[in-house]
Each structure stands twice: as structure tokens, then as C-alpha cells.
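Box S2. Input/output pair 1.
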Amino acid sequence: MNTCFMKTTKFISGACLLLFVSCVSQQEITSLDNRISELELHNAEVRKSSAALKSGLQSRTQHEEKLRQQAASLRARMEAFDEELRILTGRLEELEYQFKQRQERDSANVKARQQELSHLSESTQANEQRIAKLEQYLNLEPSGKTPTTPKSVAKIKAGKQTPPPLSEDEIYRMAKQAFDQGDADTAKKKFKELIERYPNSERADNAQFWIGEIYYREKWYEKAILEYQKVIENYPKGNKVPASLLKQGLAFKNLGDKANARLILEELIRKYPKTSEAKIARDKLKNLK
């Protein structure tokens, strides 16, 4: 009986299956195939979009990494520049302090000499007055030297005529001639006179440069650097700016300050690359490395 029941069940199931298959139309099967094809195409597009996004993300990550490296390099260069600027500022402050100290010493020496000359003048005047009194007392002929009194000095000064002022060309010619002959004091005095009397002269920047040259020739390099700096700051459009930068660099080199020497020579080459001074600076930089 059980065997008969199982056979009956299988028969019914098969019949149901046949009935179900017969119920599914060819149109529905085609629609399902089309739907599956659309899903496969959509899936392929999704995979393609995902790959493109992944590639773009990798490219962006690489670009960001490159930007971070460039930013780090720029920060390092800025820090190095700040350090060099700090060193140069400190060196200039030190030079200014040394110049001020030396100027104070020179001023004190000049004051002491003026006092000595004043005492000597007073002593000479007193001696001349005593000699005159002795000659008068002994009824002797005057020695021909008249005691110098304030009134006589005033008469002499009043009798002198003020010479006409020298032109800027005359002052510059006298100063340059003294410089060429090695008379540093006269040259320095005349160059300063030109700058003070004719500050807008076309020769003013040259005069200031030659003042720096006088100190450079005397190996007073700290003072020379400051005088060359006046050319750079006061006459930025003059023709002596490249030469002043070059001599500043050489002065720092002679002082043993290679860092500041290199910094100034590189500035000269950067700002005035086609000048003869820049060519010299390139040669000097080879020896500073």
C-alpha cells in the first residue's frame, strides 16, 4: 500500500511540474534573459566606475604626497634662509657696535688732542706776552713777534676774504687726486664735503663708494661694509651698487665670515647677472665652497 502511495505522489508531482512548465511562456523567459543581461551590463559599468574611482584616488593620493614633500622642502629652505638672515643681522649689529665703540674712542682722542692744542696755544700766548713785557722792561727792541691776543686774531680774521665755494667737479677732482696719491685723510674729507654740499650730485654715489674703498684699503673691513651699505641704500639706482655688493662680500671673506660673504655674492649674481662684478663674484664663490 505504501508503494502505491509513493507512486501516486510522484505522479502527481510530475504532473504539477509539467503543468508549471507549460504555464511559463516563451515571452517571460525572454524577459528574464533580458533582465539578466541588463544586470550584467550594469554590474560591468559599476566595476568600471569603481576601477576609475580607485585609479583617481591613487593619483590624488600621489599628488597630495608630492605636495607634502614640496611643502616640507619649502619650509626647510625658509628656515635656512631665516637662519642666514638672523646671522647676517647679528653680524651687522656687531659691526655697528664695533664702529660705535671705535668712533667713541676716536672722538675721545680728538677731544684730548684739541685740549692739548688749546693748552699749548694758551701757553704760547702767555710766553709771548711775558717776552714782550720783559723786552719792554729792559728797553729792548721788540722781537718782531706780536703777542697773539683775541683782538689781533679777530682783526686778522676780519681782514681775510672768504674764498668762493668750490664746485662739485673741483671737490671731486681734488678728492680723487688725494685718493690716488694715498692721502686717505684728505680724500675722505673731500668726498664727505661733496656729499654734504651737493647731496643730489651725480658724483655723490661715487664719492660714497670711494669712502668705503678708503676703509677697505686700510683693512678696516667692518667700517668699509657699513660705508658700502650707504651706497646700496642711498643710491639704489647708481652705477656703484654692484661694485659695493662685491666689495662687501670680499670684506666679509677677509673677516673670515664665509657664510655672509657667500650670501652677498649670490645676491649680486642674482640681481646683476650680466655685470663684470657678477663674473668676479662667481669666481670668488668657487673658493668659498
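Box S3. Input/output pair 2.
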Amino acid sequence: MSVLDHSAIDVEPRISEADVSDYIALLKPRVMSLVIFTALVGMMMAPGHFHPVLAFTSLLCIAVGAGASGALNMALEGDIDAKMSRTANRPIPRGRVTKPEAMTFGMTLAFFSVMTLGILVNWIAGALLAFTIFFYVVIYTLLLKRWTAQNIVIGGAAGALPPVVAWAAATGSVAAEPLFLFAIIFFWTPPHFWALALFRSDDYARAGIPMLPNVAGPDATRLQILLYTIVLIAVAAAPWALGYFDLVYGVTSLILGAGMLVFAIEVFIRRERSQSLRATRKLFAFSILYLFALFATLLAEVAFRALAPLVGGA
């Protein structure tokens, strides 16, 4: 009888300690908010009429798909997160959520977000969302992040796709405008994340992640940040120069680009540790403002064009 009792104790299922906040954390809400915003801009820029219910459904599916990617990423990187001070308080390292629970949660969200977008909106958008999740989880998380210093460069494609998915949801196709948005986010990603990697290099070294500062060194990283910033300025101005975006956007992109360049030059010049840390933190913070302001300008232009006939008619 005692043997039976002992066996019963051994196989007793673990009771999860997770609450709603832990599962929300798995979604990476800060990343999700950026995804929603850039997707909204891509959707609003799309031509033609898009039913509000379908528009809301599309944005919700894109947001849930981004959350699914975050949950699967955390499930696969629990060992890394536990070694980094920036991520040690995430639900899996803290033991609040197990890897199988996070995997199940992420896979469920991924399946329903893709299927809902495909069935209710269109399958081009659904396929693009599925590819975005696949790219982030498999290509970036499993294949790139642990093995190459170019992880951020190539992996940035996943974070750049939401405006394209949203445009496809609204139109059933892909055009030059969302590809410009894709390119802007794609070339913004390296200077943004390498600035973070410079002042978090010890974290990445402990976790064994081959970020550029740990592989090529801080000086090479500073040069790459400067070069990518120059390319970003050109890429951001290109749709205005080619006549796709309006003058206000063009001027805004040049002003914001000048700000990015100033901070990137400061990062390149400041080599003493305390000064370097301040410079990289400032670039990291400004890069967030840069992307938000650039896309907000596009959103404002769309709103102005929509309201102009009403104002003129009045």
C-alpha cells in the first residue's frame, strides 16, 4: 500500500503558479504595441475601403500573431533569459510558466491568428502572417540568434513584416508602399538593437549569444551602427523622393534622420566607457522616437487626405 501511495505522489501533476499577468508577459506587450502601430499605418495607407470590422479583426490577428511569436521565443530561450539580468524576471526563468505551457500557449495563438486572418479576411494576409511567425521563431530564434552575429540584421525581417501583412489584409495584394515601410523598419533594426547590445554586452556574453559587440568588438559595432544609420536615412527618404509619400513626410524623415545621424556619430566618437554608455543609451532611446514619429507622420498624412474633402466641402 505504501508503494502505491508513493507512486501516486510521484505522478501527481504540477499545479501551475502562473496567473494572467504571466501569460500577458509571454506576449511581449511592448513589442506587440510597436507591431500594432506599424501595422495600423500600413493598413491606413492602403487604397480603397476596408470594412471596420475586418480592419479590427486583421489588427487583432496581427497582434495575436506577434504575441504568439513572443511566447514561442520565450519558450525556446528560457535558458538564455535566465542568464541575462534584462530578462531574468520573465515568467519562464522565474518558474511561473513551464516551457511546455509556453509552447502550447504560443502554438495555439499562432494557429488561431493565422486561420482567423485567412478565413475571415484573405489568405494572402494569412500566409504572410504565418511566414512572419515562422521566420521569427524558426529562422531568427532557432537558427540565427545563437549562431551568428548577423542575427539582428537578418532576423529584423520578421519585425518589418507587419505593415506588409496589414496592407495585404486591406487589399489582398502587396505594393511598393508597404515594401518601403518594410525597408525602413529593416534598416532601423540594426542600429537600434546594436545600441542596446553595446550597453548590454555583458548580459549577452553571459548568455553566450554572439551579438556583434561580443564577436567583432565595440569599435566595429560602432562603425556598423553609423553605416546602417546612413543607409536608413537614405531608405527613409527614398519613398518621398520617388513620389510615393508626401512632402511633410519627406521633411520629417530628413529631420529625424539628422537626429539619428548625430546620435550615431556620438556613439562612434565616444569610446571612454561612461561616455560610451551614455551615447548608446541616447541613441537607443531616440531610435524608438524616430520610428514612432516617422510612422505617426504617415498616419497624420493619411488622416489629412481623408479629412481634406470634408473640410473643403464645408
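Caption for Box S3: Residues 19-172 form a domain with the Tetracycline Repressor; domain 2 fold (CATH 1.10.357). The longest helix spans residues 273-313.
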